[in-house]
Amino acid sequence: MTNLISKNPLVKKIIDGEVDSEVYDMLFAKQLPFTDEEYLESLVFLLKKEELKTPALKILKNVPEQIKTRYSEKRQANHRVAYYILIEALSSENIEQIIKIIHNQSLPLEFLVKIAELGNTNMLEMLLENQIKLIAFPNILDVMEKNSQVNNFIRGKIQEIRDFYLKEEKAALISEEDIIDNIQDIVQKDQEEQKDESGEITIEELQEKIVTTLQRINELSVPERVKLALTGTRTERMILIKDTNKLVALAVLESPKLTEDEILLTLRDRSISQEIIAKIANNRELSKNYTMILEMVQNPKTPLKKALGMITKLHLKDLKRLTFDKNVHYVVRNVAANLYKEKTTKR
C-alpha cells in the first residue's frame, strides 16, 4: 500500500496505473483539478514508467520550489516523493530543501547518508547540527569524511562528536523511582498492544517487564541510549525521557515512532525538565492539537511566551478553570481570567 499525503482517489489511480491515456494527457497538460502537491505526488511515481518519464520530468521541473520544500518537511511525506526532492535539491544545491529534509525525523536514515555522501560544504555543516542522529548512527560520519567537499572545519567537528559523544562509557543510572509515576500509563498502553490468544498479560507481568527493561537500559552507554530512543519501543522511550542526560531525553522527541499519547503523558509529568517541555512547545504540528495546547498552557514549565500565544485558542470552560488553577504560571492565570471576562461580557 502506497502512503500518500493526497486523499484524492484519482491520484491513487494514476499511481497504480488504473487510468487510460486520456487522463495521462490531461495530467501532462495540467488540465486536471489537482493542487500542486497532488501533481507532485502523481508525477514522481510516473518516473518509473519509461514511456511516461520524459513528460513527467518536464512538469515536475515546473512545480514551485516552495511546494517541494513544504512537502519535504511534512511528517507524512511519501518517501519516494521526498527522495526525488532530495536528489533534485542535491543536484541544484538547494540548501533550503536540504535543511527541511535533515530536520524531518520521519524520513529514513538513507536520506542523511545521501546528504553526507553528495552534499556540498554548507549542506554538510547543516547535517552536523543534527547531532542526535549522528551519535545514534555514526556511520553517517564515516560517509561524510569521504566526501570531497569536507574541509578542515568539518573534519574538526566530526572529530569533536567522536571525542565527546561516541565514547562507550557507562551512562548515569535511571532509578526506578524516576519512572514510577508513569508505570501504570505504560502498562495500560503495553497491555493493549500485547493482547494475544493466550489472554491478557497481567499488570504484575508488565511491571516486571518494565523493571527488566530499565535494568537493560542502565547497562547502555549514552550513544546506545540515543539510538534506542530513536528506534525503541514505547516502554523504552518513556524510560529514556527520564534520563538525566538531556541528549538522550531529547532524542526521544525525535523518534519517528513517538505518539501523541506519549507526548501527552510527558506534558502531564511535572518532573520532566523544562528543556523537554520547551522542545514540545516549539513543535508547530502539535500546536494544532487542542488537547496538546491545553496541556502546554497548563504546564508551568512551558515557556511563558509560548503559553500566552496558545491561551487565546482555549475554550471558555478551560479558560474559566485556569483562572482558579494555582499550579499554572500566575501570568497565565491572570490572562485566562481577563480573556474569560472579555468573552463572557461580549455575549
Protein architecture, described:
The chain has 347 residues and is mainly α. The chain is 66% helix and 0% strand. The protein is globular. The chain starts with 8 loop residues before the first helix and ends with a helix. 32% of the residues are buried. The mean pLDDT is 91.
Please give the structural blueprint:
Elements lengths: L8 H7 L5 H8 L7 H11 L3 H11 L4 H8 L6 H14 L2 H9 L5 H10 L2 H8 L2 H6 L2 H7 L6 H14 L10 H18 L9 H15 L4 H10 L2 H7 L5 H8 L6 H9 L5 H8 L8 H9 L5 H8 L4 H7 L7 H17 L1
Please give a handful of descriptors for the protein shown.
mainly alpha; 347 residues
Q: In which range does the helix fraction lie? A: 55-70%
Report how far the terminal alpha carbons are from each other. 50 Å
Indicate the low-confidence ranges by residue numbers: none
Mean pLDDT: 91
Biggest β-sheet strands, sense, barrel: none
DSSP helical segment count: 23
* Class from secondary-structure proportions: mainly alpha
Strand coverage percent? under 5%
Order of helices and strands: HHHHHHHHHHHHHHHHHHHHHHH
Total number of strands: 0
Shape assignment: globular
Report the radius of gyration as a whole number of Å: 24 Å
